[in-house]
Amino acid sequence: MAFPYRITSRLLFLILIIFLAACRQQEAAAQIRVKLIADGRERTFDVPTATTIDEFLRDPKVDVQYTELDIVNPPPFTQIADGMQITIARVSEKEECETSEIPYKQTPVLNEGLKPGEKKVVKAGQAGSQETCYRVTVIDGTPKDRVVTRTTEVKAAQDEIIYIGVSGDVEPVPITGTLAYKSNGNVWIIEGSSTSKKPITTEGDLDTHVFTLSSNGQQLLFTRKADATDSGGAFNHLWMISDVSRPTAPVSLVLDNILYADWIPELENTISYSAAEPSQATPGWLPFHDLWQMRLDPDTGESLGVKQLLKRSGGGLYGWWATRFQWSPDGKKLAWAQADKIGVFDADALLKGDINGFDNSLVKYAVLVP
User: Fold this and answer.
1) Which CATH number is 170-364 given?
2) Given phi > 0 = left and psi -120 to 50 = alpha, else beta, which region is 60?
3) What is the C-alpha to C-alpha distance for residues 101 and 108, in angstroms, rounded to an integer?
């Protein structure tokens, strides 16, 4: 009877070993324990089988969603290991904009109308403003990185303009006749000596188009910038001083949007001029490439007669550049220049109306446009 007992004992022992091994496998499987920290909570999970973090987070028992911006550490493709700690930092982006001040600059301008070293603020400076927008990265509710996405000028700063009197320590230079010149947007006259200069205008609004004395040195033509409130939308106006040797006030003529004007030699109180129309495109006007003759009342500036010498035209291939004119000293010839050619008109033929355009040029040349 001992033999069957031994078989039974061995069988029981084998069953016990198998049972213990199975328990150890279950215990071993239960050893994969991970800690999850997300959304302000800390939780611990027992994972029955080895898997990736991404699969673990998608498990219905865990049910934690994350976006491409969120920071998962370790990365989602990592294989889960026992004792692992998984953290999810919630990341979002938002836009923040703030307004800041643009400081104005000081622009010193030499002015001959002031005493040497004297200073005068003629235009107060005004600070501008700009809006700066940032892309802000928020991690778990805390703003971290700020990256500038755009900067927009809301209001331009206006420079402060300060006139400074120039030094008078200069040897006087004798002047024959009358010398007219522009300084700080004003008309100045010198007669006899360089020390006898005097301002004719004080508004500082002359532009760069017209500034010319008559052949006798008495009459002056010049253009002034149009006021911003000008209802006609002009960019300038033509003015005249009938006698620069006398303190006469400038007289406004009836002409505006003038690109060229000059006194016609040998014709008393008579000017020629060419006009344009304002334009939003650069440079701010569209030339007419025309030419007119006008006789003026020397005291009032009123028109006593107008005659068209050249009809309005497109000005050729480069018509956005204005046609320039220049009378010969004796008034018998009128030179003209366009972007790609130059020529000369006979004054008698021009005044008679025998010239129709700019076809007969002296020289044509290529234009290099950057």
Assistant:
1) 2.120.10.30
2) alpha
3) 22
Select the more confidently predicted residue: 211 or 197.
Answer: 211
Give the CA distances from residue 187 to residues 181, 205, 218, 355, in Å, rounded to whole numbers and listed in that order.
Answer: 6, 10, 13, 35
> Residues 215, 237: contact at Cβ < 8 Å?
no
Q: Give domain 92-160's CATH superfamily.
A: Resuscitation-promoting factor rpfb. (2.20.230.10)
Model confidence pTM above 0.85 = no
Q: Considering Cα of 354, then 359, then 365, then 366, what sign does the dihedral take?
A: positive
pLDDT at 291 exceeding the cut of 80: yes
Q: List pLDDT tens digits, range 204-219.
A: 899 999 999 998 888 9
Please state, in angstroms and rounded to a whole number, the distance separating the CA atoms of residues 319 and 274: 14
User: Whole-angstrom Cα distance, residue 206 to residue 338?
Assistant: 25
Contacts of 345 (CB under 8 A, 6+ apart): 333, 334, 335, 336, 355
